[in-house]
Design goal:
Distance between the termini: 89 Å
Largest sheet: 3 strands, antiparallel
Oligomer: single chain
Order of helices and strands: HHHEEEEEEH
CATH architecture of one domain: Sandwich
Strand order of the largest sheet: 1-6-3
Length: 178
Amino acid sequence: MRFKSLCSPALVLSVAALVVALGGTALAGGYIITSTKQIRPSVRKALKGNRGPRGFDGADGVAGAPGPPGPVNISAMTRVEQDASIPPGVVTHVSATCPSGMGAVHGDWSIISATAYGFFELTGPNNYSLGVDNFNGSDSADVSAIVWCVPTGSAVAGSRASTTSRIDRLIAAERSRH
């Protein structure tokens, strides 16, 4: 008698719906198509139709803000080179700085030494710095830091800051390795 009072029509209907839902999911799990080889060629051919016509182009968007000035004339670029001789047992940096009114866009370097090596490169808004480690060297290292400069405000002018404190931290970290 107690069981009969628990079996309301709503309960029976909800349990039946649950069984059908779970059974349907389990049944579908065995029939998932994972490859086109599981579909007969005649069915695949029937599903392939002709390409429809191209749609219309949308309306033009709102005009954007004006861009920066155009590229700099290559002849306006200036190459600045700073040479240094780094003695043995020294960890330091060499910087090449752009003239006033110019910004850095690219830096490069060269080291002539059997043991010295560059351990960081930074291009700032108006300079290029190279960290040089000649701590274990037996001879001086000939080092060149080179920066390419363009007029400030040009579309290609540099914008990253390379502060002296950052250079000092990088050099201190390299020195602590020795």
